[in-house]
Specification:
Elements lengths: L12 E7 L2 E8 L6 E5 L10 H7 L4 E5 L16 H14 L5 E6 L1 H12 L4 E7 L8 H30 L2 H6 L1 H12 L3 H13 L12 E7 L7 H10 L4 E5 L5 H4 L1 H16 L4
Parallel strand pairs: 3-4, 3-5, 5-6, 6-7, 7-8
Antiparallel strand pairs: 1-2, 2-4
């Protein structure tokens, strides 16, 4: 499967959803009566990052994508943000859509948000897939420095981040072979609100869930990239030790595994969540 661009293809509904936490850009694909599956994007991307998953996932699920606070078409509020706040945003979206319980799949920042939900709102989750993430991502100093640089640099700061992103997000071979996809995600990152991006950096700077993972009781899958320099296979192994019954899957990718290896990513997630709902694989 080749990804030539990141688009909103065949979405059943795209809306600006009014929630108790403000307005969020949300897309819904699939049968509205099907079991719900929420997809949460990574830092510096929008819901379009999930385009390679929509067709496969929406065959049996009501797929709900949203732009994280500070990103894309969702509200941009002044920071700093917190992971608690970003997790509460997800709960507000579920409440606005009248969804009591859902499967959840998040990547990077979205995966970290999923961990918070697993710790604090496991009753709202059928299953949890945490992809290319960690219980503590990076260091306080590094995130604070990046937030300050982006705020100071504004749009030029976002462009500088976009220029350097491929080496963090993809393997060299993928960058060479799939230039259209790489350029598409770079363009999205360049267009993210500097304040929204910086505020999410601050959320990651302040969040350390390592001591809380033991409280996650929902079925959990941890997906790691063998070549991921941001959140490593060792990070996934450490989480697995703390989360009772958690499974780990390692893909031959870097950080954005759903874009780099969409077919194997899709099979991995579908095999996992189908056991929660008893749906066909």
């Amino acid at each position: 499967m080749e990804i030539s661009d990141l688009t909103m293809s065949n979405s059943q509904t795209v809306m600006s959803l009014n929630t108790a936490r403000g307005l969020f850009r949300v897309a819904i694909d699939g049968d509205l009566d099907a079991p719900p599956l929420v997809l949460s994007n990574s830092l510096g991307t929008t819901m379009e990052m999930w385009s390679p998953q929509v067709e496969a996932f929406s065959k049996n699920y009501r797929v709900i994508r949203y732009d994280t606070r500070g990103h894309g078409g969702s509200l941009v509020t002044n920071g700093p943000y917190t992971i608690e706040g970003l997790g509460t945003d997800v709960l507000a979206i579920l409440d606005a859509l009248q969804i009591a319980k859902t499967a959840f799949c998040g990547i990077s920042l979205g995966g970290h948000t999923g961990l918070w939900l697993g710790v604090n709102a496991s009753d709202r989750l059928e299953s949890l897939a945490v992809c290319n993430s960690a219980a503590c991502i990076g260091t306080f100093q590094a995130w604070q420095e990046r937030a300050a640089a982006v705020r100071q640099g504004g749009s030029l700061g976002m462009k500088a981040l976009a220029d350097s992103a491929p080496s963090r997000w993809f393997t060299p071979s993928f960058v060479s072979a799939q230039q259209a996809t790489v350029q598409a995600v770079q363009a999205v990152l360049e267009g993210i609100s500097p304040e929204g991006y910086a505020s999410c950096c601050e959320a990651l700077a302040l969040s350390d869930l390592r001591a809380d993972l033991k409280h996650i009781k929902v079925r959990t899958l941890l997906v790691a990239g063998a070549h991921d320099p941001v959140t490593t296979e060792a990070d996934a192994d450490a989480m697995q030790v703390s989360i009772t019954g958690a499974r780990t899957m390692v893909l031959k990718t870097s950080h954005l595994s759903n874009l780099e290896a969409p077919q194997v990513f899709n099979r991995t997630i579908l095999d996992f969540i189908s056991d929660s709902f008893g749906t066909k694989k």
